[in-house]
Design a protein that fits this description.
Elements lengths: L1 H10 L17 H26 L5 H7 L8 H31 L6 H29 L5 H19 L11
Length: about 180
C-alpha cells in the first residue's frame, strides 16, 4: 500500500489526476509581463475597434477636422465615411484577436517567431496610424487620439523588450 501511495506522489500526478509538472519549461517573469502587456494592448485595440465599428457617426475629432457637424455632412458622404470607419474598426478587432491568439498560443509557449511577429505587426499597424493622427492634428487643429496611440506604442515597445529579456539567444550554439 505504501508503495502505491508513494508511487502516485513520486509520479507527479496530483489528486485531481492531472500531471503536477509536464516538464514544460517555466516562462520567465519578463516573458509573463510581456505577455500581460500584449494582452492589455489586445484588449485596448479591440475596444477601440469596437468603438469605431459601432459608432453611428464620425468621431468628435473628425468633426473638428472637417469643420462640420455630422448633420452638415451630405448623406452620401456620411455613408462613405461610416463605411471606412466601420471597416477600420472591424480590422482593429480582427488584429486584436490575432494578436491575442499569437500571444496565447505561441509567445506563451516559447515560440521564437512570436517574439518578433508581435512587435513587428504592432509597429506595422501602429506607426502609420500614429503618423496619420499626428498629421491630421497638425493640419487641422483637431484633437486627435495621439496620446492614447503613443501610449499604446510604448506598451508594445516595453512588451517587445521584455519578451527578449531573459530569453536564450537564438544564436547560441546547440550542444
Amino acid at each position: 500500500m505504501k508503495a502505491a501511495e508513494g508511487g502516485a506522489a513520486e509520479s507527479g500526478i496530483t489528486d485531481s489526476g492531472r500531471p503536477a509538472d509536464c516538464g514544460a519549461p517555466k516562462m520567465p517573469v519578463s516573458l509573463r509581463v510581456a505577455s500581460g502587456l500584449y494582452f492589455a494592448a489586445s484588449a485596448a485595440v479591440a475596444g477601440m475597434g469596437l468603438l469605431y465599428a459601432l459608432w453611428p457617426r464620425f468621431m468628435p475629432y473628425h468633426s473638428q477636422a472637417a469643420g462640420l457637424t455630422w448633420e452638415e455632412v451630405p448623406p452620401r458622404w456620411q455613408a462613405l465615411h461610416l463605411a471606412f470607419q466601420h471597416g477600420a474598426g472591424a480590422l482593429a478587432v480582427a488584429y486584436a484577436v490575432l494578436m491575442a491568439c499569437v500571444n496565447a498560443f505561441a509567445l506563451r509557449r516559447g515560440a521564437r517567431w512570436a517574439r518578433i511577429a508581435l512587435p513587428v505587426s504592432g509597429a506595422a499597424v501602429g506607426l502609420p496610424l500614429l503618423s496619420v493622427v499626428i498629421s491630421l492634428a497638425e493640419s487641422t487643429g483637431a484633437e486627435t487620439p495621439t496620446v492614447p496611440l503613443a501610449l499604446g506604442m510604448a506598451v508594445f515597445c516595453a512588451a517587445a523588450v521584455l519578451s527578449f529579456v531573459g530569453s536564450k539567444s537564438s544564436r547560441s550554439p546547440k550542444p
